[in-house]
Amino acid sequence: PSYICDVYTKSVQRLTDAPKKILGQDVAQALNLDSNRHGILYQSETKSKFYYNYPHVKEIMEASKIAGDREGFSFNRALDLQVNLYDNLLQWAPLGNQSYVSPVADNAFEFYRYQLEGSTLQNGNTIYKIKIIPKSRFDPVFSGYIYLVEGSWRLYSVDLKITEEARINFVDTLKISQNYTEIAKDIWLPSDITFNFKGNVLGFKFAGYLTGLYSDYHINPSFPDNFFKDEIMKVPADVNKKDPAYWTQNRPIPLTVEEGLNYQIKDAAAEKIQSQDVLDSLQKERNKFKPLKFLFSGYTLHDYDSKSYWHFRALNKTVFYNTVEGWGVDLKPEFRKEFSLRRSIDIKPRFRYGFGRKSLNTNIEINYLRDTLHHESFSLNMGSDFLDLNNKGTINLFYNTLTTLFNGKNFLKLYKANFFAFSAQREIVDGLLITGGTEISRRFPLENSTTNKPVFDNAAKIFTSNNPLNPAGTENLFPVNNAFSIEAKLAYTYGQRYTTRPDGKIYENARYPTIKLGYRKGIPGIFNSAVNYDFISADLVQDKVKLGLLGYSSFYFSAGQFLNTKSLYYPDIKHFTGNQTAIYNPLFPNFHFLDYYAFATNDKYFEGHYEHNFLGTFLKRIPLIRKLKLEEIVGGALLSQPKNNYKEVYFGLQRLIVRADYGFSWAKGQKPYHAFRFFYGF
């Protein structure tokens, strides 16, 4: 049935043990733990109104409380507590992408054995206690008990457990307890549900729970037209303003002694932090310069009063080497100021100096985020810079430095531009984002300025020229020219569900593909522009299309064509995101092995990427190997053009943030290529 109800949620996450120190920092002090390194990390409560009309849901938060954060908004959601065991497959995003077989699924007998353990009489109903026993503990299944009502055979309650053997991620054990109540004759709906979890990550042992209580059901109400749209949750701006008396009167589950004390300590600390002296002290401590931290992650200088900061990049992003500039320094500090929860500005001045050709480039990038709710922003970029000849970007300065110095492979090819660019974007209706921009630039070809051999390579390797189409030649790739262009893009996702919060809009994983349309025009004459071309493109993209127990697929398809090529230069033509190093980024539309520059085109093209993650479907059957919880990945990509075709296939293994692929590629007129590719990160 459809219904409206009230939902109370409480979430508590605590550390039960931790290392004494990490990276030289005292863990207990950093995380406000006791002397035994125990303590609550996160504690939050919410009250919401929940609306259900299959298959639609909507939640409106009415109250929110977070220990130690008076201005924050809880991420607790009644939506995340929705467990419909009558569905054949169950899935929770916080545990990963795996789906789990319900003990009352249509095909449950393929995965479970059942054992009757007794019966009791509850409110005039005979309730049978049934033990569920997985046929294989390595399948994505539960263990525990279900309780059924005699006659209707509806669920009365469940006590279920999943362990790491069932390939859950981030936690070792998850317990689910759910009770149902008979709201009307033969209508049983949830009265409460609790998730208990525990785990261990890098020596940090943690445990916690998320619980929800349902009350005040109204069955089969009438809903206004268009009530259930794409907004599935709304968090009003005043939900965090409830006083302690409200929670005392409306909290259906009493706080434990530990939870009550945690509120007192952290709320008092939050109150104390509001004083100027404490803020100044915290700011001074946080702004201390730490050389080791700067080396790997940079340095950030905070100003709490103005809600702003300066960030200076790490050393590996500051010092570089390439064959055009030689050794160089690339300073790009970032200034960020927040005007409100939905409005901010980022200013990034850049100073880039190449010692090899004694060249200084300066520019500034300004990004003004006007409204996070509608993704409305404006960007301004102007100055001079050395830019990648591949306008999609190829290899970053750090990796190019390593491959050039130690491998003798100077992949990065550059040109100089003096430019002024402006762009803007806004979501004009739910799911439809429009972007527009214009750019005027004066572009100069560049030649290598350094020696013709690698600095640290003893082999007789010769650097290639800065002309990717003639690696051994010295002629310029294009003449000095002015270019004026405009560009417009549309991106539309049908049925894009989202949550509206005071700090903006958060999208759910899309249920349908995103369609993208693009148009770019080079206009002659204006500002002495020498370009004259028209380019159109269309993309179809979707991430994580779930295929039940077999995992999920992702795809990216793109087609485009130059309708007019009267006058354009190499930076104007269509480029693709290639990769020629062992380290790669697995995000679409990146290729594994594609040459950075050789496949750029001024004609029509079709590009396709497909990848499937089996989530351990096969490896879980191999003893010992299954303990690693590896995920099998297969995929492929192709690029079709009138004169130059390319295709690749690959096979990979992934464990959380680590991935290794091995693949093959074929290109017209070239020998088949095969190699490993590695990725580390999110």
The first-to-last residue Cα distance is 40 Å
- Percent of residues in helices: under 10%
State the shape. Answer: globular
**Unreliable parts:** none
Radius of gyration equals 29 Å
Q: Care to count the β-strands?
A: 36
Overview features:
682 residues; mainly beta; 19-stranded antiparallel sheet; 6 helices; 36 strands; 8% helix; 49% strand; globular
Task: Note down, in words, how this protein is organized.
The protein has 682 residues and is mainly β. Among the domains are: 3-98 and 201-273, no CATH class; 325-400 and 412-541, no CATH class. Helices cover 8% and strands 49% of the residues. The protein contains six helices and 36 strands. The strands form four sheets. It has a 19-stranded antiparallel beta sheet that branches. A 13-stranded mixed beta sheet has the order 8-9-10-11-12-13-14-1-4-5-15-27-28, covered by helices on one side. The chain is globular, with a radius of gyration of 29 Å. The protein starts with a strand and ends with a strand. The mean pLDDT is 92.
Give a quick summary of the entry.
By secondary structure, the chain is mainly β. Among the domains are: 3-98 and 201-273, no CATH class; 325-400 and 412-541, no CATH class. Helix content is 8%, strand content 49%.
Strand and helix map with partners:
Blueprint: E1 3-17, E2 21-22, E3 25-26, H1 27-30, E4 39-53, E5 56-66, E6 89-90, E7 100-101, E8 112-122, E9 125-134, E10 143-149, E11 155-163, E12 173-184, E13 187-201, E14 204-219, E15 231-234, H2 244-250, H3 257-273, H4 276-286, H5 291-297, E16 299-303, E17 308-312, E18 319-322, E19 326-331, E20 334-340, E21 343-354, E22 359-371, E23 376-388, H6 397-407, E24 414-429, E25 432-445, E26 481-493, E27 498-501, E28 504-507, E29 514-522, E30 532-546, E31 552-567, E32 605-613, E33 631-640, E34 646-655, E35 658-667, E36 673-680
Parallel strand pairs: 5-15, 15-27
Antiparallel strand pairs: 1-4, 1-14, 2-3, 4-5, 6-7, 8-9, 9-10, 10-11, 11-12, 12-13, 13-14, 16-17, 17-20, 18-19, 19-21, 20-21, 21-22, 22-23, 23-24, 24-25, 25-26, 26-29, 27-28, 29-30, 30-31, 31-32, 32-33, 33-34, 34-35, 35-36
